[in-house]
Write the structure tokens for this entry.
Amino acid sequence: MANPRGPILSGDQDVRDALLTKIRRTQATDKLDAKRRQAVQERLSNHPRNIVPKRSDGNVDHKVALFTKLMTAADATVEEVSMPSQIPRAVAEFLRAHNLPQRIRFGKDPALTGLAWDQTPSLEVSDGRARVSDETSMGRAFAAVAESGTLVMTSGQDNPTTLNFLPENHVVVVEANRIWGSYEDVWDEIRHHYGDTVMPRTVNLISGPSRTGDIEQRLELGAHGPKRLHIIILNSASKAGSPKE
Amino acid sequence: MESTSRKFSSNAREALGDSQLQRALSNVPSGFVNKRAKAAAALPEFEDLRDKGRDIKNHVLEHLDLYLEAYERRVIEAGGHVHWAASAADAQRIITEICQAHGAKTVTKGKSMISEEAGINAALERAGITPIETDLGEYIVQMRGETPSHLIAPAVHLNKDQIEADFRRVHDHLPKDRVLEEPASLVREAREVLRSKYLAADIGITGANFLIAETGTSVIVTNEGNGDLTQNLPKVHIALASIEKIVPTLEDASTLIRLLARSATGQEISTYTTFSTGPRRLGDLDGPNEYHVVLLDNGRSDMIGTEFQDMLRCIRCGACLNHCPVYQAVGGHAYGWVYSGPMGSVLTPSLIGVDEAGHLPNASTFCGRCEEVCPMRIPLPKMMRHWREREFEKHLTAKSIRSGLKVWNWFVARPELYHRVSGLAAKFIKARAGKRGRVSNLPFAGGWTKHRDLPSPQGKTFQAIWKERQKNG
Ligand code: SF4
């Protein structure tokens, strides 16, 4: 790669320089420039929060409840379990309830591969990125946002991005203590995990199953992405999901 | 894209007489308008967020050169490529060259207004590459050889029986006797047909709602998930974005995201908001091997530092279209170019010239609703008046119209009077213009009088007539 700005093209360097010079001329005199640079530098490194809606302020119960309410309003289904060992059965039940084949694919996330899948022997599990033939995929959310009822999925071999979009049914596990109040809370988490100014290749905010209103503004689910989104909240404090032995 | 903005008034007259279009457009107010009002009311901070959104974009525009540089640096650090395009022709050339370098035969596309603006599809076709729009509305519009008639609802001008006929015509490999009446069956058919296209595509092209300088990230917002399949399945992802899409930080993007869906569709947030930073990483099982960003100016830098700079705050939510009585009545195509409604009336003359699009700023009743709902608090009516003044100064308007406009401008500069007397003003202009046979040059008077019997003897306002039309429709 001789040209650091692209292996294929050259010649747009001139366009770049001309454009930046032109903008600079309308906005700055030389004296102002140091000030402008400082303002930009500070904003980028301090990334101050603007206005964060108060609706998600509260304890875990409040956040779980708000997340659940908004996700449900956006046509997803949500259930709570109190122990990881309950997850395989919850998945099997979801598939049964919708007459789907007992087959599911997820990535290499140890939190998913390490679940007690031997408890549900009729449920076939496989790993890897999504295939066209997959009917149901599964993922673990990096986090969630209570404010708008939103899952936050990060790319990588643990949870390949295609699993979020290609199959028609999507099951996502999220831990209750990973449901944050706001988007800003999640950005701080991402900075903490990946480092300042570094983002995972893809961060997907998902707030319900795929939909379209393109035909006469009538809502239809499953336009290109999943038609069903089922969320399993792992909440050790949950009473709802006590073991059904 | 060729513009027919010069012919706004005849376009508008045609639109008013098109019963299919009128039926389709009747879905707009009950859908988007009510939902936006509900969503705004449900968030106590909404009005303050609008102020913040305006301030963020103003700050960006004042420091745009520096944020562009910072953004470029981060994209390169993440392994992506940044290309700079001054004009639509540059963008066409850059994108075509990337496609050719990969021997691309088909390209899937996420919804992108900037791609429409830059005529990317036509350029690809000229190079023997097949572009496939994947947003359902765009797919339908492309199938018909049309362009989108709304920022976020490209096929809002169509009824389902028209769409059914197109699907039967184009999807001729499917059984003729299949049932396709319901929107659900049309959505399913498009889903299945497009699945194979995503998988076969060599390159995926998307737009970007935001570019984040802090991290070198491009953001797309969709409800269908088509943009994600477009950018994740092919080997190469190209994001095409205009330079004013930059925001400083993830926090700033969050503020605008809170405004966007609420203003557009009344959702809390769109179903999918996707942040993309660079190509596939070590160990990744999917994602593109190459990630390119094409930054397009196409006239925007000329707006910076002028009275039209505020227009660059626009986040393309479509609220001003949805709330505009003129848009509701004539739809998007009458505006004759990519952008329609109040934002189109302001932006189009900036981008393609007042000679070409000087009529558009007349396509207004100056009711002020667009500014009331614009999440970025863009003073749209004021800017339309700026254009009218400029057009007036440039003597592009026929003499008879100019004297009519003078009176018109006097009224519209006085909103409190305007509502009471706009019926009268319309009558006056009609009388003046009518005598000289130049009615058609004044879309407001000309377009309406023929079809809507304006003004009535009592001098009804545009609003009153619109309401009546709603009732009767
Ligand atoms: S001008 Fe304002 S209301 Fe219109 S599309 Fe742009 S941001 Fe939305």
Notes: Residues 399-466 of chain B have pLDDT under 50 and may be disordered. The pocket of iron/sulfur cluster is lined by residues B 151, 263, 314-320, 343, 374-376, 378 (CB under 6 Å).
